[in-house]
Amino acid sequence: MKRKLSIAGVFLLLLFLLRYPQEALSASREGMKLWLNTLLPTLLPFLILTGFLIHTDGIEKILSPFSVMWKTVLGLSPAGAYVFLLGMLCGYPMGAKLASELFACQKIDRREAEYLLTFTNQASPAFLTTYLAHICLEQRTSAKEILIVIFTANILCMIFFRFVIFRNNTATRSNEIIPKKETSTTSSPGSIIDVSIMNGFETITRLGGYILLFSIISACIRHYWKWSPSICSLIVGTMEITTGLHQIALSGIPYEIRYPISMALTAFGGFCILAQTRSVTDKRLSFLPYISAKCMNGAVTAILLLILSKVI
Hints:
- This protein is mainly α.
- About 75% of the residues lie in helices and about 0% in strands.
- It has 15 helices and no strands.
């Protein structure tokens, strides 16, 4: 059934491409513009440099002196703390990519990798302060408030998964090794850099493909949805947050409703982010904790905003 639905969906998208080539072309251009101007220059350097650190054991050397703090405060190893720091800084889907790579290299165990997926994969501060606060919300809410709410909701979800879901999990380090293009720590720096560059471009290209696909899906929804434009913008927002947040900003929804909806969708990430995250996640890792965490994150964000509005 799942395969039949996938084939039917692809067939409908092909019909849309053939029947409305101008709309499809415009959507493709917007998606590729997002990939080229935002994702490529912001994520690719981190992917390459992080790959080098992973292959040379540089992560442990940098963060091991603070291992007691990472374990006590976050319940993480030094390698897991690196995923946390880079995931918070770089945004989707850097946290999931790093957790998956460190698990595949056997630097963290399955429990820690799945635990990291629940709170390290989120919107970057740059996205929150520029695109969401400045463009979509028109600076009617301060960037500081947006950051505080989003990161507070994320930390609350982290606490829940740490002490409730993963408290009694005794998963051990996996001995399976997935064939991948990487070198040993004894290889020359030039070889390690070459492998890191190729892995980085492979990942960033895959992400671009998902952005392109979901941009076309969003255009198809906007074309065929003949009812409420507000509902249409919400549906598009659940598909791809960048396009969706822009559509919500133009929908005419009152700001008192638009603000929490935009925040909750940003915390959730949308189905495009889910697909991107799944594509860079080791298939041996359960994806259910991540999906549960993103749904919970969106709900907690909305609840925090409701409480904040009552207090103010």
